[in-house]
Each structure stands twice: as C-alpha cells, then as structure tokens.
Amino acid sequence: MGRGKIEIKRIENSSNRQVTYSKRRNGIMKKAKEISVLCDAQVSVIIFASSGKMHEFCSPSTTLVDVLDQYHKLSGKRLWDAKHEAPQGEDISTLNYKELMVLEEALENGVSTLKAKQNEMIEEENQNLQFKLRQLHLDPMDDNVMESQGVYDHQGVADYEAQMPFAFRVQPMQPNLQERF
Question: In what residue span(s) does the MADS-box domain sit (predicted)?
Fold first, then answer.
C-alpha cells in the first residue's frame, strides 16, 4: 500500500509545520549526500528556516564558493556584485535599504552560527575535562592521587566511606514482603 497524496499548501498548525519542515529538511539533506557520493556530483544545499536558522550541505569535494562561481559562469546570472564581497565603510554607505537589510541578516546569521559553534566546542571541551577528572578520581591504581586526596587512613587502607557524602538504603518495593523481626 502506497502513501496517500497530500495537498501542497501551507500547514497552519505551527507544531505540525515544524515537524514537517524538520523531516523534509533531513530528507533533502540525505538525498543531497547520496547523490554526491553515488554520482560524484558537486552538490550544495542551503535551507533557511522561517526562524532564520540556516542548514547547509556541500559536497566534500568542493566548497560553496566554488559551486556558486560555477553557477555564475554557466548560467550567466549575477549572484552578487564585487562591491558586496568585502564592503568597507564607504562601500556600505552606497547600499540601499534592502541591500543593508540583507547584509545585516547575513552578519546576524554569521554571528549566531559562530556563537553556536563556539558553544558546541565549549560543551565538548567541558565533557572531555569532566571525563578526565572522573578518570583521575576513579583510578584506584594511582596511589599518588589517592594519597593526595587523603583517601587512605593512617594504616594505608583505603577509606572509601569518607568519600561518600550520603548513603542509600534499599527498601523492598512491596511493604508486605518485608522481614519482620
């Protein structure tokens, strides 16, 4: 049994619209990766969500700039003017309102992408440091670490109870199964 056809129109329910967007975006990205690998094609996909978040894929064998340059050469369409490549103060003053808005949005997207990447890297580093810290605290073979933390008592026996800030008491799930003394 095949899937039913749906009418292609805007989804009014915002939650359903977001789910559909996410699924279809992932599907497009998957297809882009597959055609890139299977056919050795140069593929570049850029999707902007209604929230302004950008999702992109570019074949590993190329860059977005190379794909856009090739598009420009083969189609003859101008994607951007040379004055937009590296605008200076005086160049910006010649832009009209729409061009300034596009430039501002591109800068905001760039900043948010950089912040997200920075947060991702900080989180990854934090996880690595926490893992290393746990390794240092849990390695019972490293006597130097154990001694420096005062884990051993005066007889050289490890005092693990001193490390435990609290204790657990196991209780049966069913009160009628408890032993009576």
Answer: 1-61
Q: How many Å apart are CA 78 and CA 45, to the nearest integer?
A: 19
| Nearest Cα to Cα of residue 83 among 75, 71, 92, 72 | 92
Contact partners, residue 6, CB within 8 Å, separation at least 6? none
pTM (predicted TM-score): 0.44
Read off φ and ψ for residue 11, nearest 5 degrees.
Answer: -80, 120
| Residue among 20, 81, 19, 71 at smallest CA distance from 45 | 71
CA distance 60 to 67: 12
- H/E segment holding residue 14: helix 14-39
10-residue stretch averages of pLDDT, the chain, 181 residues long: 82 92 96 95 92 91 88 83 58 80 88 90 89 76 51 50 54 56 48
